[in-house]
Amino acid sequence: MADPSLPDLLAEHQFVPVMVEAWQLKDAVASSILSSNGLRREDIPDCSVARLRDMQDRIEKFLRHPDLIEIPFDDEVRDEIRSALPIKLIDLKQDVLHRRVVIETSELVNSTQARVGGLDDNQARIAIQCTLDRLQSVMSSYAEDSREASKAEEAARLDLSRREDENHRLRIFERRWNVFRTFFARESAATIIGAILLTVMTLALTTGMFAGVPAPPVVSNAFLLILGYFFGNAAVSQRNGP
Fold it and tell me: Domain limits of the chain?
Protein backbone atom coordinates (compact mmCIF):
# COMPACT_ATOMS: atom_id res chain seq x y z
CA MET A 1 0.00 0.00 0.00
CA ALA A 2 1.44 3.36 -1.02
CA ASP A 3 2.15 6.05 1.52
CA PRO A 4 -0.48 8.82 1.66
CA SER A 5 0.50 12.08 0.02
CA LEU A 6 0.88 15.31 1.98
CA PRO A 7 -2.51 16.66 0.84
CA ASP A 8 -4.14 13.37 1.84
CA LEU A 9 -2.55 13.53 5.29
CA LEU A 10 -3.61 17.12 5.84
CA ALA A 11 -7.13 16.41 4.61
CA GLU A 12 -7.36 13.37 6.85
CA HIS A 13 -6.41 15.31 9.98
CA GLN A 14 -8.01 18.66 9.12
CA PHE A 15 -11.38 17.90 10.67
CA VAL A 16 -10.26 15.86 13.69
CA PRO A 17 -7.91 18.20 15.61
CA VAL A 18 -9.10 16.91 18.98
CA MET A 19 -8.57 13.23 18.13
CA VAL A 20 -5.17 13.61 16.51
CA GLU A 21 -2.28 14.95 18.55
CA ALA A 22 -0.03 17.52 16.90
CA TRP A 23 3.02 15.29 17.22
CA GLN A 24 1.23 12.46 15.41
CA LEU A 25 0.45 14.70 12.46
CA LYS A 26 4.02 16.05 12.46
CA ASP A 27 5.41 12.50 12.52
CA ALA A 28 3.12 11.40 9.68
CA VAL A 29 4.05 14.39 7.52
CA ALA A 30 7.77 13.83 8.22
CA SER A 31 7.44 10.17 7.15
CA SER A 32 5.64 11.21 3.96
CA ILE A 33 8.36 13.74 3.11
CA LEU A 34 11.11 11.14 3.60
CA SER A 35 9.12 8.67 1.49
CA SER A 36 8.94 11.22 -1.33
CA ASN A 37 12.76 11.35 -1.15
CA GLY A 38 13.08 7.59 -1.63
CA LEU A 39 13.42 6.68 2.06
CA ARG A 40 10.61 4.28 2.92
CA ARG A 41 10.94 1.93 5.89
CA GLU A 42 8.71 -0.60 4.11
CA ASP A 43 11.28 -0.95 1.28
CA ILE A 44 14.18 -1.99 3.54
CA PRO A 45 13.43 -5.77 3.79
CA ASP A 46 13.39 -6.12 -0.03
CA CYS A 47 16.45 -3.97 -0.78
CA SER A 48 19.76 -5.31 -2.06
CA VAL A 49 23.02 -4.42 -0.35
CA ALA A 50 23.75 -1.83 -3.05
CA ARG A 51 20.34 -0.25 -2.56
CA LEU A 52 20.83 -0.24 1.21
CA ARG A 53 24.20 1.50 0.80
CA ASP A 54 22.52 4.11 -1.40
CA MET A 55 19.82 4.67 1.23
CA GLN A 56 22.46 4.99 3.96
CA ASP A 57 24.43 7.54 1.91
CA ARG A 58 21.27 9.54 1.30
CA ILE A 59 20.31 9.47 4.98
CA GLU A 60 23.77 10.64 6.03
CA LYS A 61 23.65 13.43 3.42
CA PHE A 62 20.31 14.64 4.78
CA LEU A 63 21.60 14.45 8.35
CA ARG A 64 24.59 16.62 7.40
CA HIS A 65 22.55 19.00 5.23
CA PRO A 66 18.90 18.98 6.40
CA ASP A 67 18.14 22.03 4.23
CA LEU A 68 18.33 19.76 1.17
CA ILE A 69 14.98 18.25 2.15
CA GLU A 70 12.21 20.31 0.59
CA ILE A 71 9.24 20.91 2.91
CA PRO A 72 6.25 22.55 1.15
CA PHE A 73 4.95 24.61 4.06
CA ASP A 74 5.37 28.12 5.43
CA ASP A 75 8.28 28.94 7.73
CA GLU A 76 6.65 28.14 11.08
CA VAL A 77 5.26 24.77 10.02
CA ARG A 78 8.45 23.98 8.08
CA ASP A 79 10.54 24.42 11.23
CA GLU A 80 8.22 22.14 13.20
CA ILE A 81 8.40 19.41 10.56
CA ARG A 82 12.16 19.79 10.10
CA SER A 83 12.70 19.33 13.85
CA ALA A 84 11.15 15.84 13.60
CA LEU A 85 13.27 14.71 10.64
CA PRO A 86 16.62 13.92 12.37
CA ILE A 87 15.10 11.30 14.67
CA LYS A 88 13.20 9.74 11.75
CA LEU A 89 16.39 9.66 9.67
CA ILE A 90 18.43 8.08 12.47
CA ASP A 91 15.80 5.41 13.07
CA LEU A 92 15.85 4.62 9.35
CA LYS A 93 19.65 4.46 9.36
CA GLN A 94 19.66 1.94 12.20
CA ASP A 95 17.17 -0.25 10.33
CA VAL A 96 19.28 -0.01 7.17
CA LEU A 97 22.46 -0.95 9.07
CA HIS A 98 20.75 -3.90 10.73
CA ARG A 99 19.46 -5.18 7.39
CA ARG A 100 22.88 -4.77 5.77
CA VAL A 101 24.51 -6.86 8.50
CA VAL A 102 21.90 -9.60 8.10
CA ILE A 103 22.31 -9.77 4.31
CA GLU A 104 26.11 -9.46 4.22
CA THR A 105 26.55 -12.05 6.98
CA SER A 106 24.26 -14.47 5.16
CA GLU A 107 26.14 -13.92 1.88
CA LEU A 108 29.49 -14.57 3.58
CA VAL A 109 28.27 -17.79 5.17
CA ASN A 110 26.79 -19.05 1.88
CA SER A 111 29.96 -18.13 0.00
CA THR A 112 32.12 -19.98 2.50
CA GLN A 113 29.98 -23.11 2.37
CA ALA A 114 30.20 -23.14 -1.43
CA ARG A 115 33.96 -22.75 -1.43
CA VAL A 116 34.67 -25.26 1.31
CA GLY A 117 32.91 -28.10 -0.54
CA GLY A 118 35.70 -28.63 -3.10
CA LEU A 119 38.75 -27.85 -0.97
CA ASP A 120 41.08 -29.91 1.21
CA ASP A 121 41.25 -29.30 4.94
CA ASN A 122 44.05 -26.73 4.88
CA GLN A 123 42.46 -24.69 2.11
CA ALA A 124 39.11 -24.93 3.91
CA ARG A 125 40.60 -23.59 7.09
CA ILE A 126 42.14 -20.67 5.21
CA ALA A 127 38.86 -19.93 3.46
CA ILE A 128 36.93 -20.10 6.72
CA GLN A 129 39.46 -17.86 8.45
CA CYS A 130 39.20 -15.27 5.65
CA THR A 131 35.43 -15.34 5.92
CA LEU A 132 35.57 -14.95 9.69
CA ASP A 133 37.93 -11.99 9.30
CA ARG A 134 35.54 -10.35 6.84
CA LEU A 135 32.61 -11.11 9.12
CA GLN A 136 34.46 -9.55 12.05
CA SER A 137 35.14 -6.47 9.93
CA VAL A 138 31.46 -6.18 9.00
CA MET A 139 30.36 -6.55 12.63
CA SER A 140 32.95 -4.00 13.83
CA SER A 141 31.81 -1.52 11.20
CA TYR A 142 28.18 -2.11 12.17
CA ALA A 143 28.96 -1.62 15.86
CA GLU A 144 30.79 1.64 15.14
CA ASP A 145 27.97 2.93 12.93
CA SER A 146 25.42 1.94 15.58
CA ARG A 147 27.34 3.86 18.26
CA GLU A 148 27.49 6.93 16.03
CA ALA A 149 23.79 6.59 15.24
CA SER A 150 22.95 6.32 18.94
CA LYS A 151 24.96 9.45 19.72
CA ALA A 152 23.33 11.32 16.86
CA GLU A 153 19.89 10.15 17.97
CA GLU A 154 20.49 11.35 21.52
CA ALA A 155 21.71 14.71 20.22
CA ALA A 156 18.66 14.98 17.96
CA ARG A 157 16.30 14.17 20.82
CA LEU A 158 17.97 16.76 23.04
CA ASP A 159 17.71 19.34 20.25
CA LEU A 160 14.04 18.47 19.74
CA SER A 161 13.39 18.77 23.47
CA ARG A 162 15.16 22.15 23.52
CA ARG A 163 13.06 23.37 20.58
CA GLU A 164 9.85 22.24 22.27
CA ASP A 165 10.86 24.00 25.51
CA GLU A 166 11.59 27.18 23.58
CA ASN A 167 8.26 26.96 21.78
CA HIS A 168 6.48 26.37 25.09
CA ARG A 169 8.14 29.42 26.68
CA LEU A 170 7.31 31.46 23.60
CA ARG A 171 3.64 30.45 23.78
CA ILE A 172 3.51 31.37 27.49
CA PHE A 173 5.09 34.76 26.77
CA GLU A 174 2.65 35.31 23.91
CA ARG A 175 -0.34 34.56 26.14
CA ARG A 176 0.94 36.92 28.84
CA TRP A 177 1.58 39.63 26.28
CA ASN A 178 -1.93 39.21 24.92
CA VAL A 179 -3.30 39.78 28.44
CA PHE A 180 -1.27 42.97 28.81
CA ARG A 181 -2.15 44.11 25.31
CA THR A 182 -5.84 43.61 26.00
CA PHE A 183 -5.53 45.61 29.20
CA PHE A 184 -3.64 48.42 27.47
CA ALA A 185 -6.18 48.51 24.66
CA ARG A 186 -9.11 48.69 27.07
CA GLU A 187 -7.77 51.22 29.55
CA SER A 188 -6.78 54.81 28.86
CA ALA A 189 -3.24 56.09 29.23
CA ALA A 190 -4.28 58.15 32.27
CA THR A 191 -5.57 55.03 34.01
CA ILE A 192 -2.37 53.10 33.37
CA ILE A 193 -0.10 55.96 34.49
CA GLY A 194 -2.31 56.54 37.53
CA ALA A 195 -2.09 52.87 38.50
CA ILE A 196 1.70 53.01 38.31
CA LEU A 197 1.86 56.21 40.38
CA LEU A 198 -0.59 54.81 42.90
CA THR A 199 1.55 51.70 43.35
CA VAL A 200 4.74 53.74 43.78
CA MET A 201 3.09 56.12 46.28
CA THR A 202 1.63 53.22 48.26
CA LEU A 203 5.09 51.69 48.61
CA ALA A 204 6.60 55.07 49.56
CA LEU A 205 3.93 55.82 52.20
CA THR A 206 4.18 52.31 53.66
CA THR A 207 7.97 52.48 53.83
CA GLY A 208 7.87 55.94 55.41
CA MET A 209 5.31 54.81 58.00
CA PHE A 210 7.51 51.95 59.18
CA ALA A 211 10.64 54.10 59.07
CA GLY A 212 9.01 56.88 61.07
CA VAL A 213 9.41 59.42 58.27
CA PRO A 214 6.28 61.56 57.75
CA ALA A 215 5.10 61.85 54.16
CA PRO A 216 5.05 65.37 52.64
CA PRO A 217 1.52 66.79 52.31
CA VAL A 218 1.85 66.97 48.52
CA VAL A 219 2.46 63.21 48.34
CA SER A 220 -0.50 62.43 50.60
CA ASN A 221 -2.76 64.77 48.64
CA ALA A 222 -1.63 63.30 45.32
CA PHE A 223 -2.25 59.80 46.66
CA LEU A 224 -5.79 60.70 47.71
CA LEU A 225 -6.40 62.49 44.42
CA ILE A 226 -5.36 59.49 42.32
CA LEU A 227 -7.29 57.12 44.59
CA GLY A 228 -10.37 59.32 44.21
CA TYR A 229 -9.95 59.28 40.45
CA PHE A 230 -9.98 55.50 40.40
CA PHE A 231 -13.05 55.27 42.64
CA GLY A 232 -14.83 57.86 40.49
CA ASN A 233 -13.87 56.09 37.28
CA ALA A 234 -15.09 52.76 38.67
CA ALA A 235 -18.41 54.32 39.73
CA VAL A 236 -18.93 55.86 36.30
CA SER A 237 -18.13 52.57 34.58
CA GLN A 238 -20.54 50.71 36.84
CA ARG A 239 -23.30 53.25 36.20
CA ASN A 240 -22.79 53.16 32.44
CA GLY A 241 -22.81 49.38 32.42
CA PRO A 242 -20.63 47.02 30.37
Answer: 6-184, 187-240
